[in-house]
């Protein structure tokens, strides 16, 4: 009997010890899983993202029917401050705008010691960086003659980092080390619109895609002008500042970079790019939203004609305008490589809009909001026409089927390579 009870005691003790061990293991596992999402991918960055408050709001400001893009997944930040934020050092305050501070060493490694050059512009060189986390980013090394101090640079970066829109090339980070100022952007895998319009290595851009690109750009600019607080005037709209993502969605790059305080340039010098400059700006030296509208008009003509403004595009346009009788007759300037594959009505509508944008009098130019609505309406009409055609072809097919039960259905037209979206308010536009 005594033996039985001591066996029972031993059995219970072992059970209790095993139970306690399992409980401790369970607790440890639970804590590990809770921490893992926050510590992942931290090796290449010093700080981590905290909520973006675009223009003081919890979410990005959305105009028309735009929404945030998908390429910069790490910046699609959750609401609420992560628990570990309190532990960040003072030097990481800039991260409060939602962007990251990258280390020079990591960027040096990710760009193969700054040899992976993808472009060179007025503000410096751009490199592709393949981070150890697997993500690719574009690193813009600003011209070294900048006299801007680190604090001012961080302030600028913080302001730019607040701007988020699916039609902007979002700023995701910065680096200010070793006397260098670098801006880190989402990598745009399809390159610039300029390269698609002028380089032989790319497939020809279809007319349909050109109009969709125009609407994307207009939406990005509309956000900068009317959604950002304070509003941002781009000052350097041109085809090499329009970048394309994997789905051929267009995004505006280099917003906010042309300001005198962002990079050290002589303020009395003309800024912007020859061929896109508002004549009014050249005489007054005052950049307004309507100067961006002028440059956008030039970009529209560039899309129509497939011709570079530095190669006499505007002279070509002015000559054609003499024969357009106001709203029709723009066919003569269309990119000949399209071989007639465009809708004549759409072409005349887009060209008429573009011509309004380049009016010498800024007051007579439409606003970016008007332009978004006008382009949305053009795409809406196209969409309705296609559906109408599709519906009639289905009816015709059904009639044919009734006549001949063995008749074959004709295949429907293929979908666009891109989803076309447009604002629901399109019809209210006066442009
Ligand atoms: N985020 C990016 N993703 C991919 N390529 C980029 C990116 N930013 C810039 N580039 C490339 O680098 C080139 C140079 O850019 P930039 O320095 O802004 O000069 P510019 O705009 O005058 O061409 C661009 O034309 C583009 O091809
Ligand atoms: Mg650029």
Using brief descriptors, characterize the structure shown.
431 residues, alpha+beta, Phosphorylase Kinase, domain 1, Transferase(Phosphotransferase), domain 1, six-stranded mixed beta sheet, two-stranded antiparallel ribbon, binds adenosine-5'-diphosphate, binds magnesium ion
Overview of this structure, please?
The strands form 2 sheets. The protein has a 6-stranded mixed β-sheet with strand order 1-5-6-4-3-2, with helices on both faces. The chain has a two-stranded antiparallel sheet with strand order 7-8. Strand 7 (242-244) and strand 8 form a beta hairpin. The protein has 2 domains: 56-187, 2-Layer Sandwich (Phosphorylase Kinase, domain 1); 188-405, Transferase(Phosphotransferase) domain 1 (Transferase(Phosphotransferase), domain 1, Orthogonal Bundle), CATH 1.10.510.10. 39% of the residues lie in helices and 10% in strands. Mean pLDDT is 76; it is low at 32-93, 260-267, 403-417 and 423-430. The chain is extended. The chain is α+β, with helices and mostly antiparallel strands and 431 residues long. It is built from 10 helices and 8 strands. Bound molecules: adenosine-5'-diphosphate and magnesium ion. Magnesium ion is lined by residues 121, 240-241, 253-254. Residues 121, 240-241, 253-254 line the site of magnesium ion (MG).
